[in-house]
Design a protein that fits this description.
Number of domains: 2
Number of helices: 7
Oligomer: single chain
Strand content: under 5%
Organism: Caballeronia sordidicola (Burkholderia sordidicola)
Radius of gyration: 31 Å
Protein name: Uridylyltransferase
Keywords: Nucleotidyltransferase, Transferase
GO molecular function: nucleotidyltransferase activity
Shape: elongated
Pfam family, one: FAD-SLDH
Length: 193
């Protein structure tokens, strides 16, 4: 190897070494910027906007919407899947409406569901009906309108939660259908002891 070839090879390896260092330093700086951005540590807001979370879709998006509308933090996942499937089957636009509602709620903050429904009735009635259908499904356990009403939850419907400590939730019919419409039997006067 001549002196000229040796000096070119040594200069080339120094050039590669410097390029490697620049690449590693750049990668580390990018990773640090991403870490600080996701932690919200004072980087400009365009970083935050670029990495902003989009609302989840599917069942996760439906659970997010349900948490916002009902104020509950947990749901029975089997019932949630049944409710989501039934609502999706009953309304072909349900999945898109859930995403739109999550975005609307994100922009307008956490507000009670009756306020959401009133505000949406003026702007987008389809979204207001999705709020109503979702709450009806969770609280009453019913999806759809007559004559095609599906029962997706009965004893696990949220309407029973406020009285669950004092009321036994009926899981079966206690008598013949419409037994409550008949006049109850007469009660005699209590006997003296």
């Amino acid at each position: 190897m001549t002196k000229l070839q040796h000096s070119l090879t040594a200069a080339g390896s120094v050039g590669h070494s410097a390029a490697r260092r620049r690449f590693v330093l750049g990668a580390c700086a990018s990773a640090a910027a991403l870490a600080f951005t996701s932690a919200g540590m004072g980087f400009p807001s365009f970083f935050t906007q670029a990495f902003a979370d989009t609302p989840p879709a599917g069942l996760e998006g439906f659970l997010l919407l349900s948490r916002k509308l009902t104020g509950r933090t947990t749901f029975d996942l089997a019932v949630a899947q049944r409710v989501y499937d039934a609502l999706s089957k009953a309304d072909s636009e349900f999945v898109a409406n859930v995403s739109a509602l999550n975005q609307w709620l994100e922009a307008h903050g956490g507000v009670p569901s009756d306020t959401v429904t009133q505000a949406l009735k003026m702007d987008t009635p389809k979204l207001a009906s999705t709020v109503t259908a979702t709450l009806r499904a969770w609280y009453l356990g019913l999806v759809g309108d007559a004559p095609r009403v599906s029962v997706v939850a009965y004893e696990r419907a949220l309407m029973f939660d406020p009285v669950s400590d004092v009321l036994t939730i009926p899981s079966y019919c206690r008598d013949v259908p419409f037994y409550w419409t008949q006049k109850p039997p007469a009660v005699g006067a209590p006997k003296a002891a």
